[in-house]
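Appendix B: complex inputs.
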Amino acid sequence: MKKFDANIPEGPLAEKWTRYRGTMPLVAPNNKRNIEVIVVGTGLAGASAAATLGELGYKVKAFCFHDSPRRAHSIAAQGGINAAKNYQNDGDSVYRLFYDTVKGGDYRSREANVHRLAEVSTDIIDQCAAQGVPFAREYGGTLANRSFGGVQVSRTFYARGQTGQQLLIGAYSALSRQISLGTVEMYNRHEMLDLVVADGKARGIIARNLISGKLERFAAHSVVLATGGYGNVYYLSTNAMASNVTASWTAHKRGAYFANPCYCQIHPTCIPVSGDYQSKLTLMSESLRNDGRVWVPKSMDDVKAIRTGAKKPKDLAEEDRDYYLERIYPAFGNLVPRDVASRAAKNVCDEDRGVGATGLAVYLDFAAAIVRYGKSSALSEGIANPSMEEIKKLGRAVVESKYGNLFEMYEKITGENPYYTPMRIYPAVHYTMGGLWVDYNLETSVPGLFAAGECNFSDHGANRLGASALMQGLADGYFVLPYTIGTFLSKEIRTPKISTDLPEFAAAEKNVGDRIKQLLSINGTRSVESFHRELGVKIMWEHCGMARNAEGLTKALGEIKKLRKKFWEEVYVPHTDKNGEEFNPELEKALRVADFMEMGELMIRDALNRNESCGGHFREESVEQDGEQKGEAKRNDKDYMYVAAWEFTGVDSEPILNKEDLTFNDIELKTRSYK
Amino acid sequence: MAHDEINLTLNVWRQSALNRKGGYKQYKVRVNTHMSFLEMLDVLNEQLISSKDADGPVAFEHDCREGICGACSLVINGRPHGPMQGTTTCQLHMRHFKEGEVIYIEPYRAKAFPVMKDLVVDRSSFDRIIQSGGYISVNTGGTPDGNAIPVEKDQSETAMDAAACIGCGACVAACPNAAAMLFTSAKVSHLALLPQGQVESQTRVKRMVAQMDKEGFGLCSNVGACEAECPKEISIDNIARMNRNYFGAILSSND
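Resulting structure:
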């Protein structure tokens, strides 16, 4: 039986969560001891959920495919985490964070979920501070904040450029504590390859022990997926190498609807592609746009001179530079949201004004900030009549204290020193707003299967604001799921321990085993990597990337089917055991890429269906024709104000589209303008 | 931009599984100097896959390739994470190598880090050290307001310096005694330097040091190689701080 009701509680928006929490069914402590929960993934959402469920007294089994739960890719988040604390006294509030998030998401998220997120955001900061997360502080000892894109207040908390790492270490230490107390059993180096559904409820998983290569069965009363996004469909992205969609995708195949798969976030500030050998792209934190100014040359002569190296960026006078974000969007300037900044960069590069050898880059320049900070430092240090050199030296020290590790990383990768020459940046795939469809309880359409963090679709609509991924992961894991899972588990207190001898476990294990044997038996000529690259770069990025149109998407649909067929005929997966019972990283990769091949098709179908431009999804057919917004993305609320929740019907058959209509009672629908 | 290409000879440690005999195999690769070290290994693996080499591709650990997850390791020409100061293997670029260079690549060597395959080692001993006490015992919810406990800025910065540890294990690989003092002391310091971590700092340090010994890590003899090779440049001052903390805890202990 599929569930497809958002289950939004009654009552005024601002009171829904509090009332619901106060009246939802609970599981008594003596019953919790007998109820088992599986949590897959140990990033911010998974680690915080597993730790909190363990603290509450449930018997938890946690899984990660890394050698340690601390390595999940939440760790790479740089800039910060939002919370409506209003510590800066700049007019922030729960409503404002809610408003910014709904508007930033281009009115494609579920109002009640977003409001709850804004409400619990403040608890997250308290929780993390208590765990010992070393947030940046002011001299008086209070917590410091900075600004992120798409908002006009300072609500982002941070720990240098390593906020994700520090928050994950916090969640990981809470998880470690529960492991030591015996409430959580941790399975490292285990990758979930199938979901087991028995009697219509999620009752377990099949995981591959990555060291022995053997398939193992794990049963529980309920399963939580916190397995991240699917940005690696594009091959080149800011995701980690092993980030994948397999857990969500197998859940989808077992009945969980997949919502809004076409919503992908393309982050404006990444280090540009430099060659065919490149394995991934590296993000430069959005926080840099607090101080960096984005520009390209105004004239084509200067563009050419820069590309050949005849001119250096600093040779261009101020009036010869086009600070295009400041010019087009004066109200938000360099801090427009990510989708807007990315498209603007694409537009200037399409006009052939991009810099760098490939012409696919724009400058992010800190020269003005260095002088501004230098002057301020000179003043506070009482240096009279400082020379420009002294000012710049002082300014570079301030910039280093703010962004030192990012500047260092940029220099390591590119060999250029951004203190002296502007960074070159270009948009890259970063985050996926789409994900498993969940109701208000974070329960998917398969009863007993929950999804938290990036792997659900719930809070960011069609575009996520900076520093909101960490907020959502921890909100789900610490403060939402541990309560809402009780709505399902309270009905399970009479269900005895689930046995792995159920026929559904045997069937799922056979399904995975057969897939592995088939992959290994192909013995073709092409590497998994070469297929992944072709899928990502030639099909997905080309036709389902920053700008999409019906013609390209239709073409991509044909191409992806052909490539998938070729993959299953020509791939070569090295092995010594025909059942895959050995440590074999190539096989791991092959299983993930096989799922990306199917996932990509769903993304293309969703992008084709949604003939409007909203957030990260830009359809060239849907653009404002005149007025102040001319050339900007055009949303179509009349026809597309719904969540597209796709139902799986078979790998080679068309999925069914289910629609959840979105209603906005507490926020006025507006054209999203940052001008 | 002209991409320079260089030819390299690689001597790579190959070992089929845990407790099997391993040895060096030699490979030739031609690579672009803008590649990272791991992208150079990708090139080697693509070669080994397309030639259907009997040993298969080289297994090595990696994930974020941004220098933060701590998955990548390797001992490159005798140095954990290679020749560049403060740099993880994934952030090491081939522009630092010369045409014709011979490079030795081997796994971390330590009793507490057994080799699982080729260049992959088991570092779960680090997890167990954290599980023994590397946390502040607060449950979710009911914590005081974030600004209720002011933390002195410099103190917070020093805690952050220690917290920057990525748990990669280079300190152990660099140490002639294979000690885990820099790793353990970084975690102890991170929490002990903050007022929130003060409450249980004595039990924490005792338990973490005991677990470290139990895992079979060696003793510290103040060589300082850990600090020199740490990709996050974690200071050896943390070891001194942990020792003070530890002896204080032992002397004032009632048990």
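The CA atoms of residues 110 and 166 of chain B lie 18 Å apart.
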